[in-house]
TrEMBL record:
This is Elongation factor 1-beta. It comes from Parthenolecanium corni. It comes from the Eukaryota. InterPro entries: eEF-1beta-like_sf, EF-1_beta_acid_region_euk, EF1B_bsu/dsu, EF1B_bsu/dsu_GNE, Glutathione-S-Trfase_C_sf, Transl_elong_EF1B/ribsomal_bS6, Transl_elong_EF1B_B/D_CS. PROSITE patterns: EF1BD_1, EF1BD_2. Residues 131-217 form the Translation elongation factor EF1B beta/delta subunit guanine nucleotide exchange domain. Belongs to the EF-1-beta/EF-1-delta family.
Amino acid sequence: MTISETLKSLDSYLADRSYIEGYQPSQADVTILGVLKSAPTSATPNILRWYNHIQSYKPDERKKFTQKSLSSGVSKIISSCDKAAAPADDDDDVDLFGSDDEEDAEAERLKEERLKAYAEKKTKKPAVIAKSSIVLDVKPWDDETDMKAMETQVRTIVIDGLVWGASKLVPVGYGINKLQIMCVVEDDKVSVDDLVEKIQEYEDYVQSVDIAAFNKI
């Protein structure tokens, strides 16, 4: 398979995908980006769309991408590049595995080095832990509710992946204050809905709980 055919296969693969593997950028995208020496042409619009998107991330941001293994389909697309065949004219701007006059053995060596480097990086670099910063509005029943006791009860909630932060009282009218409290949660460990339900279980103090702010970290 020529480089032109290989690019067409990759372009077809990306026709209904935003990323090489999964639904968010990963080191698989970085790996494929590394074997593209320059920007694709309009002859492969799906590769060009993907390429421009991944290039929009700064190098430091790409280092934080999660680790994902290349699927067999993507690996076959890379392996199918036949350096013995000269590329078509529309391949001049893209060189997958080095210059056009490299021999097959050299191209294979470079490909193996890149795949080996990716595998080593995958085993050594820890996965990025997805976290969210949340601000909760905890509302009391009336102005006679003991707000310090309310906060104490809220902070007794202990969940793996939950860290409580700063808090303050915010006036809502008629002498009533609400407790506004921050927390950071690990997305894979803490369900925000479950956290809200746990707070609302303190019925002697809590009338309702609202999410005032929710930001991914």
